[in-house]
Amino acid sequence: MNRGLAYSLTAIVTGFFAIFFLYPAVIVLKEAFYVKEEGLTFGFIREVFANPVYVEGLWNAFALGITSTLGSLLIAFPLALLGHRYLFAFKKSLSALILIPLVLPPFVGAVGVKQILGSQGALNALLASVGIIDAGSPVDWLGENRFMGIVIMNALHLYPILYMNIAASLSNIDPAMEQAAQNLGCPPWRRLLRITLPLCMPGIFAGGAIVFIWSFTELGVPLVFDYTRVAPVQVFNGIKDLGANPFPYALVAIMLVISTTVFLISKAVLGRSKLGTAPRPKGRANEIRLKGVASFAVAAFFFAIFFISSLPHLGVVFLSLAQDWYATVLPEAWTADHYREALGHPLVVPSIQNSLLYATGSTLIDVVLGVAIAWVIVRSNIRGRAILDALVMLPLAVPGLVLAFGYLALSREGQGFHWLVGAAEDPTYLIIIAYAVRRLPYVVRSAVAGLQQSNIALEEAAQSLGATPARTLRRVSLPLLSANLIAGSILAFAFAMLEVSDSLILAQQAEHFPITKAIYSLLGMLGNGYELAAALGVWAMAFLSIAIIGAVVLGGKKGGLFRM
Amino acid sequence: MKGSLKKYLGVFIPLAIVVAAPLIMRDTVSESAANAELRLEIITPHNEAIRREFGDAFYEWYEKEKGKSVYVNWRTPGGTSEIKRVLDGAFQAAEERGSEGVGIDLFFGGGEYDFSGQAKKGRFVELAIFKNQAKLFEDDIIPPTVSGETYYDPNKTWIGCCLSSFGICYNTDSLKRRGLNPPKSWMDLGDPAYMKGVALADPTKSGSVAKAFEMLIQQQIHEEIAKGGDRDKAVSRGWIRGLNLIQRVTANAKYFTDSSSKPPRDVGQGNAVAGMSIDFYGRTYNEILKKDDGTSRVHFVAPKGGTSVSVDPVAVLKGAPNMELAQEFVRFLLSKEGQMIWNARPGEEMGPRFRALRRLPIRRDLYQEPYLSMMTDPDAMPYEVADRFFYDSKLTGHLFTPLRNIIRVMSIDSHDEMKSAWKALEKKGFPEEASRIFFDVSPVSYEITGTEIRSTFKSSDKVEAVRMTNRLGKHFRENYEKVERMCR
């Protein structure tokens, strides 16, 4: 890569990142290191480590991060591998359906889980009806084994991130490599361990890093389980405390250090394919058509994962249609009234327009920046690119509320970001940038994995034949990257549509509400607020599901990620 | 080509249907920002139903009074803690650039604690209504204080608009399953039979919840004083009894939440046996879950002697861009029309247009006919409930901040250890020595709290405050762990 171009790209992306991520984060986190009288202090950091409750909280968060990542991998890897190797019944539909867990709407997702797993929830009602438990002493599914409960919920929610990245990696492996091993008499397990797994390591690392940081900093799921001895919940409680408490910011700073360290260590260990880059796959001859029982068994496995992971979604759907759903497997009486009231609410239509604008804008920024950053990280040899790589992961590890407070502080009149909101205090640009920053890691990771796997010789060949860098990018690199970019963009878009923290704080006026804030507003309605929020949540799920499946169906054709 | 067209249509037709649904079902909006002649900027934690009703009602009222249309632009950054943050930052930035206002006209909704805090920082202006309608501020319409709760600022910068109180909601099915009678007081929720069954609001995140906990302590202090003898000693004993009661109740807690709708919802769904709930949530759940035979699985009770009725205020912010209009909004809120929106049934002449809000108006003169028969909750009678309790601010008012922090270290931060110890105690039949250790609140006695703890929280040395919190937390955690070991 042209060194000058690498430096300019690095300068641009680092500048963007420094201004829109580091600056607002530092503005907020300085509370943990600065006391008016003393100046710089590490007193709060020391006190975090002096308090066993916080140390335990950090440890639990770390353990949740590791176990949830392993849990997601246990689900995602077999799925991706089966999808890569075999043709089986309903493959097209099932490959798209297993991405659906991504679209669980915020707030009501938790309510959906409670409707299923609560003391008087559907599961207990089902077990009581078949005589497995006594209806008089229901099982407290959410109260017992909370740690394992959270790991299972995280794994079932987050496996699509790993699945997409691994699937993209597998599609980049040249079947000739595996075929060569097979021809030389390598048994299937050995082939998997020695050839396939090392070759798709960039994808595993790309997805794993995101899943780890996500579950390490996850707030919603522990809150559903009332599991408070975990750092993200402690941060959230601290931020909401009436007495301005600097403790949560010290905790965030420590979490940032842990996230970065884990990222750098795992990158050193797992981040690169030990077998180096392989030539672009030339064919798909290695897809084996399964027949009979085997075909249906694989389909059943896909369906089982889809079904179990979409139980919370089903909870939300049933809730949105229920008059009263209590101590029964299904609601006793059904109604469409919640949809009439929720979708008819004046907040809804503008919020849909806003969300589409915010999510599309931020995804576009992410794709442009993501490719640029990935290119610098993979293709250049400038110093410090590893630091840039670690830096762009940090937005995942900073709680949304913290960053949102930073943006808010800087967007006031006279402050650095005021030009973004203007005199009318229109937060559109600010929200698009905030969304883009927080979702940049998805695209960067996908693009890095893609570039690592695509053969640089192809780009060099294009350039030696006289193609300009721009033309090489457009005609060679981007098409090679497209599978990974589609995966990353789907994640960035879906999570932007479902974004909570920035939306709640930055979109203060009804005319700027995104859909998540409309859901939040309906939740606060007296009486049937949860049902109304569920109805709008179902709308969001339906929209995102069609959008994601559409992206897979239409984009997959070109990218070859989900071969359909 | 045909195949790919089919693919595109297969994606875009369902997408179009989904996007079109809300467009077709959309309700018409009464006024929009673009058409209105005037605009009012209000920051509020009130829910969407309240915003919509008051936005529309003020639009109509003002058009009738002044012949001009107003668009109310609601700013909702979240709950009161987010609003505090927004206002703190905005006023600080305004100060730096030398301007008075922050582009917002009013702060509407929250608690007395939030408004007193802002008033102390000089961010409100005097309300014109105190001068223009002085008659409103007589005891039979809006009294200045009721049983220790302030209903309007003595400096006339904020005033309450509606009333609410904390009570207990409970699920009759869950009670039956545990063999319990309906709870009547906070004390009942301290019964170990409620273990893991109580949904509590978080006193560290809301001034009103903290106040409810303070009331619980005051009730114990009053009972001790009533026994006679040395008053100071009685106060100290009452304080300890109050903290011990909080320990019992919180040891039974499933969680502490800052979402006021969560406890009544969880009680309604059977995820909790009983919970701490704001009155209007409790009453609403009771009603919407009523069966054809008139019974409901959720009930709400105002705890005997241990509750106070507090206000949701409104104030005009300093440097408000639409000062006159903002003062008019306050006048509207305290007019009979504005007040009845809080509790009249939808469809009544003075009622809300879309939904019943089930809040209680502050104006005492409305708790009589003909208004009472228009109300959704004619039996609530908040002034009668409030009169049943006497609050003496001299007893615990100065300990408001320390108390919140004590509850945090005693019950919230160490909740896991506390619950385990409580369970172990119950299993062993509450052995004397272990119980003594569990209930040992000596490091946070009335005397120590009033001196050392209070002064640490008042001082600007935040590191020292954190250090003290850690030290106190250690005491409780180690005691709970010890109790669990002793009862093994």
Number of domains of chain B: 2
Ranges of chain A with pLDDT <50 over ≥5 residues? 557-564
Q: How many H/I helices of chain B?
A: 19
Number of strands of chain B: 12
Reported for the largest beta sheet of chain B, the result is: 10 strands, mixed
Rg of chain A from C-alpha positions? 24 Å
Question: What is the CATH domain class of the largest domain in chain B?
Answer: Alpha Beta
Share in β-strands of chain A: under 5%
Corresponding CATH superfamily of chain A: MetI-like
Strand order of the largest sheet of chain A: 1-2
What is the element layout, followed by pairings?
The complex is a heterodimer of chains A (564) and B (488).
Chain A: H1 3-29, E1 34-35, E2 39-40, H2 43-50, H3 52-85, E3 86-87, H4 91-97, H5 108-117, H6 122-129, H7 146-172, H8 175-183, H9 188-199, H10 201-216, H11 220-224, H12 231-240, H13 247-270, E4 288-289, H14 292-309, H15 311-321, E5 322-324, E6 333-334, H16 337-344, H17 348-379, H18 385-391, H19 394-397, H20 400-410, H21 418-421, H22 428-453, H23 456-464, H24 469-497, H25 501-506, H26 515-523, H27 529-559
Parallel strand pairs in A: 3-4
Antiparallel strand pairs in A: 1-2, 5-6
Helix pairs in contact in A: 1-17, 1-20, 2-13, 3-7, 3-10, 4-14, 5-15, 5-27, 7-10, 7-22, 7-24, 8-9, 10-13, 10-22, 12-13, 15-27, 16-27, 17-18, 17-22, 17-24, 17-26, 22-24, 23-24, 24-27, 26-27
Chain B: H1 2-25, E1 38-43, H2 48-66, E2 70-75, H3 80-96, E3 106-108, H4 112-120, H5 129-132, E4 145-146, E5 149-150, E6 158-171, H6 172-178, E7 198-201, H7 207-226, H8 231-251, E8 253-257, H9 262-268, E9 274-278, H10 279-288, E10 298-301, E11 309-316, H11 323-334, H12 336-340, E12 360-361, H13 382-387, H14 393-396, H15 400-412, H16 415-427, H17 432-438, H18 446-458, H19 462-486
Parallel strand pairs in B: 1-2, 1-3, 7-8, 7-9
Antiparallel strand pairs in B: 3-11, 4-5, 6-9, 6-10, 6-11, 6-12
Helix pairs in contact in B: 7-8, 8-15, 15-19, 16-19, 17-19
